[in-house]
Structures are given as structure tokens and as C-alpha cells.
Amino acid sequence: MASSLAKGPLVSTLRSNNVLSQRSSGPLAFVSAASQCRQFSNSPQHGMGNMRGVPQNFSVKQPAQPSTKTRGRELSRADLPQDIGLLPGTYVRQLWRDMPSIFHQPAERLRLEWLWLKTGFQNFLGLLAYCKWVNKGLPLRLKERRQVAGELHQRMYTAFADGNLPLLRKTCCTGLANNLGTRISTRPKDEKVTWHLDKYIRSPSTFLTGIRVVSDRATQIPELPDSGVRQVVVRITSRQSTGKSKVRTQRGQQTPANEVEEAAPVKQQDCTEYIVIQKLRWVGEETDWKVWGHTSPTTVDNLNDPAFAAGLTMRERMEAIQDQMAGKK
Fold first, then answer.
1. Least packed by Cβ within 10 Å: which of 87, 174, 268, 277?
2. According to the model, what pLDDT value does residue 73 have?
3. Mean pLDDT within 100-127
4. If we measure between CA atoms, which residue out of 128, 137, 289, 153 comes closest to residue 217?
5. Residue 17 confidence (pLDDT)
6. pLDDT for the residue numbered 48
7. What fold characterizes domain 89-324?
8. What SS3 class is residue 180?
9. How many CA atoms within 13 Å lie on the side-chain side of 214?
10. What span, in angstroms and rounded, lies between the C-alpha atoms of 63 and 21?
11. Do 127 and 220 form a contact (C-beta atoms < 8 A)?
């Protein structure tokens, strides 16, 4: 899937920065314009007859442009795009109870099961190639995936409840952090939100742990050496409690905790979430794991997507995916 990122925001940012640097450089623009004008000799007029047949236009050698790797290093970490989207072809297995019946929809059920096996095998091979071949010596980090996902999940919801924007931006990718920040800004000033993870529901769907990795994919970024992205999708089943309360204020200051008026009773519910965590590698340097967002399981309706459609060659599939990402279809 590496070629599917060729039109993505990471490479586009590098290209746009390079164009801007060329346009803003006065000397380069002057030399380019001068090379298109006719050159006149400073020798006397009578000497022009001896110069017949000699070209009067001299080409000016353009300075070498910085390589893609150099431009990538010059791009600051703040300008690094984080929301590259969910990698095309990511298969997210449904819960057993949500899968189509083997008796009523046998063809669809067998196709989903085959996609699960095929993509799982391909993803593992791709991860091995990404860590041990493309980026030699990069650890697989198989054991830390569930732990990191659980910590980021709790940190994200706690920061959202507390209205802690700095922690949100440190925990989530830019798009998700901005979305949650907007929701925080629309809250009433006297409203206090609480969130608590009561327990993980240790069902067989999560191997009795509450957190199960359902997809782990990695791919390099085209045109940028020693760079790539890794995305892990985890299914988290948990029991959560949320509540809202109003705080009485006096002279613009918050009163003690015993003067907080309850606005709504605490609500407890069981949740099944598919959280996507992401780690970027940028010219040999890795960023921390962050929450990209939520996703949905792959269903029968997704079987017609280019990434899962049957009867396509690899080239046709990649072209269809690129057209879909570019908005052509």
C-alpha cells in the first residue's frame, strides 16, 4: 500500500514547501528571467562579423535543488501532517454476533472470513518488511500495543472531560484534538464533566483481556527515505461512567467542591470501541504513539470497495484506490 500514499498530504506538503521556497528566492527568479532574454555582446560592432555562427545566447546553470530527504529534515515537526487517514485496505473484523449468518449469507460470510485471514497474513509480512528490511533494526513492538492503546484511550477521555487541551494535543492527532477542542469550547462555563473507566469487559472477543488488536499495518512513505507510518486498530470493550454537574460561581471564582450542584445523574454504559493509534517515522526519527480516532468494522457493504473487491489485479486495485483517495470516484 505504499504507493497509495503517493498523493497523500505528507508528500504534498514537501512539494508545496519546495515550490514556495523557489518562488520566494529573488536571485533565482532573476537568473531564470535573465536566461530567457537575448544576450548582447559588449565587443565593438565591427567585431560582430567575425562572430557569425557563434551562438549569442548563453545558458545559465541552475543551482542544484535540495533532495526530498533534505527538504524532509528542514520541515519542522509542527508542520508534519498527522492526519493521513486510515490506510486503505484496513480490514477490521466484526464481533462474532454481528457477522452475517453462515446459513442465510454463506457467500458473504466466507468472503469476510477469507479477507480476515488474507489481510492478517499480508499485514504481518508487511510489518516484518517495514521493521526488519526497510528500516533495519526497528523493533516490532508487539507486546506494547495493547498497553499503549489502553493508556492513550484513558488519557484521551480524561483530558476531554477535564477540558485539558494541551494534554489532548499531546495524546491525539491534530484533527481529533481540534474536534475535541471545539466540543470543549461549546460547553457552558459552569458545567463540569466527569469520566471514569469502571472496568474492562473481558469477553472472548478480546481474548479475555478487554483490549484486542484487530489490525496492525505499516508502510513507508513514497519519495521520502527512512520514513513511514504504522497504524494499529484495537477493539476495546469496557464499562464507563460519565456525568455532568453545574458549579455555582461567586464573583467569577469557583466555589468549594461541596457547593457543586448535580445537573445529571452519573450514567454507566458498556462500550465497544475501535480505536486507531498511529506512530509516524520521519527521516529516521519516530514520533510518539497518538490516537488517530475511531473506526468501524468491515461489513458486507464494504466488500465492493476497491481494496476488497474481487477480480482485480494488484495494479488495478492500486489505481482504483488512488482514484478513490483523489476524489475521482
1. 268
2. 54
3. 95
4. 128
5. 46
6. 45
7. Nuclear Transport Factor 2; Chain: A, (3.10.450)
8. helix
9. 25
10. 13
11. no
Could you identify the residue written with the cell 472472548? 204
**SS3 category, 215:** strand
Residue 2: its pLDDT value, please? 42
Q: Of 74-83, 279-288, 306-315, which range is least confident?
A: 74-83
DSSP states of 59-75 as a string? PPPPPPPPPHHHHHHHS
| CB-CB contact of 290 with 152 (8 Å) | yes
**Cβ-count burial 185-224 (b if 16+ within 10 Å, e if not):** eeeeeeebbebebeebbebebbeeebbbbbbbbbbbbbeb
Residue 99's Cα: distance from chain center in Å? 28
- Identify whether the C-beta of residue 31 lies closer than 8 Å to the C-beta of residue 61: no
Kindly tell me the burial class for residue 159, based on how many C-beta atoms sit within 10 Å of its own C-beta (0-12, 13-18, 19 or more): buried
249-250 and 260-282 beta bridge pairing:
unpaired
Q: Where are the domains of the chain?
A: 89-324
Q: Among residues 231, 230, 205, 215, which one has the least CA distance to residue 118? A: 215
Task: Tell me what the mean pLDDT of segment 83-89 comes to.
Answer: 88
**Confidence class of residue 305 from pLDDT cuts 50, 70 and 90?**
confident
**Nearest in space to 211 (alpha carbons), one of 274, 158, 295:** 274
CB atoms within 10 A of CB 236: 22
What are 318's three cell numbers?
492500486
Mean pLDDT of the chain: 79
pTM for the complete prediction? Answer: 0.74
pLDDT in tens, 128-179: 999 999 888 899 999 999 999 999 999 999 999 999 999 999 999 999 999 9
Distance CA 278, CA 231 (A): 5
- Length of the chain measured in residues: 329
Provide CB contacts within 8 A for 109, sequence distance 6+. 99, 100, 101, 102
- Please, are residues 214 and 120 in contact by the beta-carbon 8 Å criterion? no
Instruction: Please report, as a single letter, which amino acid is at residue 227.
Output: S
Which carries the bigger pLDDT value, residue 57 or residue 266? 266
